[in-house]
Specification:
globular
């Protein structure tokens, strides 16, 4: 008996302008970045901070995320191509930057973003944990949108399933229903976003308990990733016989870091931010007094 399923066969190209093809995946990335900019702008204005840190922080964040995502894929998932013979004369260095050809890793994006934000706070003399707590609110909604882009690309899905919401990914030649893990992750990331957004806008955690939101973010997001990875098809052939796949292995350090940061943050006394770069018309009061 054939299980109920959803036949999934979308065109990954949303539209074309002449010879330029615009993919749904690219649109999902653009939407994720624009929403992150909108949220970050609201945060900076809410806290009465210098608006110049909006453009600067966004630029550092975007460049670091895209570069880290691409390099992460090359180094974590295609090491045989990018690590074995890096000094050969015909080594395809240009492929490291070829994001149109696919291959973006969320763990690489996380590492790149951490580095980019560190450079950003050094320039503006901001507390590193301040920006981490706020970026933690934005990242899950962006991750949800990117996973929907993966769905439109018919990629990064799960094992065969008899559940009624299994997807038959026609573009990849599948004939059996598979777990739509892209949707599982998107829904989970959306729930994490709603929780962290509530903590930021409706409580004083972000202002007084430094690191709590960031620690929760690391634990929740990468725990979800670890669990869902267990039902995903291997992305690379060499992962097939591994007890834990690469996505799970890379998630573990982030989960451990989240537990340590949350423990550290919760034990520390409340410590409102002071000496922040304020907007010219902002009242000269501590951040904790702003609503």
């Amino acid at each position: 008996m054939t299980p109920l399923s959803i036949v999934w066969d979308p065109n990954p190209i949303a539209f074309s302008i002449g010879s330029l093809e615009v993919a749904w995946y690219g649109i999902s990335w653009a939407a994720a970045l624009l929403i992150a900019l909108w949220i970050y702008t609201r945060m900076v204005k809410r806290e009465g901070l210098d608006p110049r840190i909006i453009d600067s922080g966004f630029l550092y964040g975007v460049l670091a995320t895209v570069i880290g995502s691409r390099l992460g894929h090359c180094l974590f998932y295609e090491p045989q191509e990018y690590l074995l013979d890096p000094f050969m004369s015909d080594f395809p260095w240009i492929k490291l930057l070829d994001i149109r050809g696919g291959g973006m890793a969320s763990h690489g994006a996380a590492v790149g973003l951490l580095i980019g934000l560190w450079l950003f706070v050094r320039k503006w003399k901001l507390p590193y944990i301040w920006v981490l707590d706020r970026v933690a609110v934005m990242v899950p909604i962006g991750g949800a949108l990117v996973r929907l882009g993966n769905l439109m690309n018919s990629e990064i899905y799960g094992d065969p399933t008899s559940l009624p919401w299994g997807f038959i990914f026609v573009q990849n030649g599948e004939t059996l229903p598979m777990h739509p893990t892209q949707i599982y992750e998107a829904v989970a990331y959306l729930a994490i976003f709603l929780l962290l957004a509530h903590l930021y806008w409706r409580t004083q955690l972000a202002q007084q308990k430094r690191g709590v939101i960031f620690g929760l973010f690391l634990i929740l997001l990468f725990a979800v990733r670890f669990v869902i990875e267990s039902i995903k098809l291997p992305q690379e052939v060499w992962e097939q016989n591994m007890a834990l796949n690469m996505g799970q292995i890379l998630s573990l350090p982030f989960i451990v870091a989240g537990v340590v940061i949350l423990w550290w943050a919760w034990r520390r006394p409340a410590q409102p931010y002071t000496n922040m770069p304020l907007a010219e018309n902002a009242p000269k009061t501590n951040s904790k007094n702003r609503k």
